[in-house]
Design a protein that fits this description.
Number of strands: 12
CATH topology of the largest domain: Transferase(Phosphotransferase), domain 1
Helix content: 25-40%
CATH class of the largest domain: Mainly Alpha
CATH architecture of the largest domain: Orthogonal Bundle
Distance between the termini: 46 Å
Largest sheet: 5 strands, antiparallel
CATH superfamily of the largest domain: Transferase(Phosphotransferase) domain 1
């Protein structure tokens, strides 16, 4: 996609929006019909060959007491990405986001950089990585994940779709030893809760139900570590699942 022109996130103009809207790439999430509209994700490369993901939506809305007539979900995702980044939680870098209403129909775009070198938690376990080197790197990953989730929930943010496919991990190899970096993806359903404990309970219940190949022992290590970092909030109990 050599002709792709990078646009700053702060540039909000019809010209910029149309330029991004006309860009086409490989579908990684085919358009699906839901929320009264259509949403899909394409993969492209910019002029510097950096891998980008473009979430493209038409009439794909959420409703709330603030927006009873509906608002594009990418705008909620944009807000969550910015808020979590300020909390020190690794999320994809936002390149461009805008929504426009034409003839009564919303069109919306969210462009973000790929998490280069990261794999999903599903793929992490499928690769056999947790069994290498006595499992030390895997224990580090679980600790880093617990820190990230406790930071999220202490700020009363709920991911809202906390599946292993939305938790990403990158292995770093250094002279002082290997360590794991974690990141969160797909914040379309993320929201602030009145109580941190509500955000915590709902996310962790959801992750447990969908933890897939994660062994029960790893889950308990994750929760034990999480409860050490979440002491300002009611600790999470395995019995709540």
């Amino acid at each position: 996609m050599a002709g792709l022109i990078a646009v700053r996130h702060s540039e909000h103009s019809p010209t910029a929006f149309e330029r991004w809207w006309q860009i086409r790439g490989e579908w990684v999430e085919a358009p699906n019909q839901r929320r009264g509209g259509e949403s899909g994700v394409q993969r492209v490369r910019d002029k510097n060959h950096k891998l980008l993901y473009i979430k493209r939506q038409t009439g794909h809305l959420y409703r709330s007491w603030r927006h009873p007539l509906g608002r594009p979900t990418v705008l909620r995702e944009q807000q969550a990405m910015q808020a979590l980044s300020k909390l020190g939680i690794h999320v994809p870098r936002l390149v461009y986001c805008e929504a426009q209403k034409d003839a009564g129909q919303w069109r919306a775009l969210l462009v973000s950089e790929a998490l280069e070198g990261f794999v999903s938690l599903d793929d992490w376990y499928a690769s056999g990585e947790p069994q290498r080197d006595g499992g030390e790197l895997n224990r580090n990953m679980l600790q880093q994940l617990s820190i990230m989730l406790s930071r999220l929930h202490r700020a009363a943010w709920q991911h809202g779709c906390l599946y292993p496919k939305h938790i990403f991990i990158k292995r770093h190899q250094t002279a002082d030893g290997d360590w794991a970096e974690v990141a969160l993806l797909d914040l379309e359903k993320s929201r602030r809760r009145l109580l941190s404990v509500t955000a915590s309970r709902r996310d962790l219940q959801q992750l447990y139900r969908h933890k897939g190949a994660m062994p029960e022992g790893d889950w308990q290590l994750l929760i034990n570590s999480y409860n050490c970092f979440i002491r300002a909030v009611e600790p999470y109990s395995h019995d709540e699942i």
